[in-house]
Amino acid sequence: MNETGLSEEKIRNILNDSKSQDLKYERVLSSMCTYPHRVAVEAHMQFIESNMGDFGLFKGTSNLEKEVLSMLSNLLHHPGASGYMTTGGTESNIQAIRSMRNLFIQKSKCEKPNLVVPDSAHFSFDKVSDILDVELRKASLEDDLKVSIDSVKSLIDENTIGLVAIAGSTEFGQVDPIARLSEIALENNIFLHIDAAFGGFVLPFLEMSCEFDFILPGVTSIAIDPHKMGMSTIPSGVLLFRTNEHLESLKAETPYLTVSTQYTLTGTRSGAAVAATYAVMSFLGKEGYREKVSGCMELTHYLMDRLAGINVYPLLKPVMNVVALKVSKPDLVRSRLAKEFNWQVSITQKPHGLRLVIMPHVTFEMIDSFVKDLEKVLQTI
Predict the structure, then answer these.
(1) C-alpha distance from residue 361 to each of 32, 229, 262, 343 (Å)
(2) Strand 135-139 to strand 114-118: parallel, antiparallel, or no bridges (unpaired)?
């Protein structure tokens, strides 16, 4: 820090230069985030100083959070579900499993609790294991890259606190057989957390119905991220519990604040993200989200048709707007696309392929340009 401050003009120049070095979403086909909706941005700026860590000072913002939770509770088929807004899927997953662990330990003597997750689970669950000292047991996948029910069953024992299912896996966009996992959770009297961080704002708005939420009686918690397909600002996540007992298991006393207890992982929380999420969900409504998802799926199908024209095909049929492609030497292809054409794509690990996410910022022209550049790269490999 300098002894004397810089001028506003100098700071603006530095910021503009730094911003110019960021990759624009128009060249990004790897991210599960996108440009936030303009009404979300406006609301975010209006509430920029609101701190939900001491929400007694910001009662209006707190009421907006309650409205967000109500809207999502209804969308996910359990009006009145308990929860709060998080920074995103990682925090939601940590808190969901922390609740599982706390409630399980209260009711059962257990030296080393374990958690059964699909091998396709997000890396945040490795963080969960480390932070909470919970053994992570990874169930194998079927050929369709959904978790194997037999593998899940084989990993459950008396120290298993719960199961995790994925509704829109990060690599492939696949949805685990959640209805069957719900039955298994009930049969074994254990919890079932759904990581719908991405799929939560896609699956309810697809033409094809998919049961993944509280409509299934074994589901005890859900993570869903408005800052992904919900088009809110970052950081906007939501964690919902079927019963208030789960939320209460996370309670901490906060004697020096205007409220006496917190249930959150972070202390300070963004009220701006709360307002942004309320604004965009209220503005778009179900009809608006159906249009957004329909548009992304139309582009996904268009991409598949264009790729077939250059003999590139998906590793499996896309369920949502996440596509994994079968290409030779995907690491090299990814590197060449970035270096020669400034495209940002990602790769899948098992099986190895090229991964694309078709978000609302993607256009037909963007896909045409990408396919043309991909063809050039593949012709030289």
Answers:
(1) 11, 11, 37, 14
(2) parallel
Q: Is the peptide bond before 235 cis (omega within 30 degrees of 0)?
A: yes
Can you give the pTM of this predicted structure?
0.95
| 230 shares a domain with 101 | yes
Count of domains forming the chain: 2
pLDDT at 209 over 90: no
Assess if residue 222 is contained within a domain.
yes
165 by Cβ neighbours in 10 Å (0-12 / 13-18 / 19+) ranks as buried
Q: Is residue 3 part of a domain?
A: no
- Give dist(CA 198, CA 224) in Å, integer: 7
DSSP strand pairing (135-139 vs 160-166): unpaired
Q: Where are the beta strands (DSSP E) in 87-146?
A: 114-118, 135-139
Please tell me whether residues 26 and 145 are part of one structural domain: no
Q: Which H/E stretch holds residue 82?
A: strand 82-86
Strand partners, 160: 114
Q: Hey, is 136 helix, strand or coil?
A: strand
* pLDDT per position as a tens digit, 299-340: 999 999 999 999 999 999 999 999 999 999 999 999 999 999
Range of the domain at 150: 38-282
Beta bridge partners of 239: 84, 223
CA atoms within 13 A on the CB side of 53: 10
Question: Across the chain, what does the average pLDDT equal?
Answer: 96
> 149-169: per-residue pLDDT in tens?
999 999 999 999 999 999 999
What is the bridge-based pairing of β-strands 252-253 and 261-262? antiparallel
Reported as a single tens digit per residue, the pLDDT across 239-287 is 999 999 999 999 998 888 888 788 899 999 999 999 999 999 999 999 9
Residue 367 is assigned to a structural domain of this protein: yes
Q: Give pLDDT, residue 47.
A: 98
Beta carbons of 275 and 44 less than 8 angstroms apart: yes
Q: Which residues contact 113 (CB under 8 A, 6 or more apart)?
A: 101, 104, 105, 134, 135, 159, 160, 161
